[in-house]
Amino acid sequence: xxxDPVTALEGxxxxxxxxxxAAKVANDLGGLAxxxxxxxxxxxxxxxxxxxxxxxxxxxxxxxxxxxxxxxMQTAKLEAELVLLYMQSGNIDVWNKIKARAAxxxxxxxxxxxKAKEEEQRQQEKADDQMAWAVxxxxxxxxxxxxxxxxxxxSDLCARTRCGN
Length: 165
Description:
The chain is built from 4 helices and no strands. Helices cover 88% and strands 0% of the residues. It starts with a helix and ends with a helix. It is mainly α.
C-alpha cells in the first residue's frame, strides 16, 4: 500500500499538535495514552511515506520528504518532553516498559514480515518448478511426437521407393 506523503505529513503534524495540547491539560500521564498512541502511529506512517518519497526521486516528493523529516524531528523532541514528564512524575519505569513493549512488537512485526516474504518466495519457487516441469513435459511429448512422425515418414518413403530391397 502506497502512503500519500502529504496526508502522512498532515497526520503527523496534527498528532504533534494534539499531544502538545493534551500534555498541557492532562492531570495524569494515563490521560495522554490515546493521543500519544496517535502520535506514534502517525510517525510510523510518515516514516513509511518518507522512505517511499525518497525512493521515487521526484523533486516534489523530495520536498515532502524534507517536511516529513522536520516533522519527525519535532516528534523526537516531543518524545524527549514526554520522557521528561514521565521522569518528573516518578514513572520512568512505565516509560521504559512502554518502549520495551514497542520494541518487542516491532521485532515481532519484522519477524512476521520476514516469514511472509519467505513464504511468498517458497510459493514462487514452487510455481516456477511446476512451470519448468510442464514445459519439460511438453517438450518431451513434442520430441517423441516428432520422432514418431519422422519414423512414419521414413517408413512411407521406404515403402514407396523400396529402400529395403
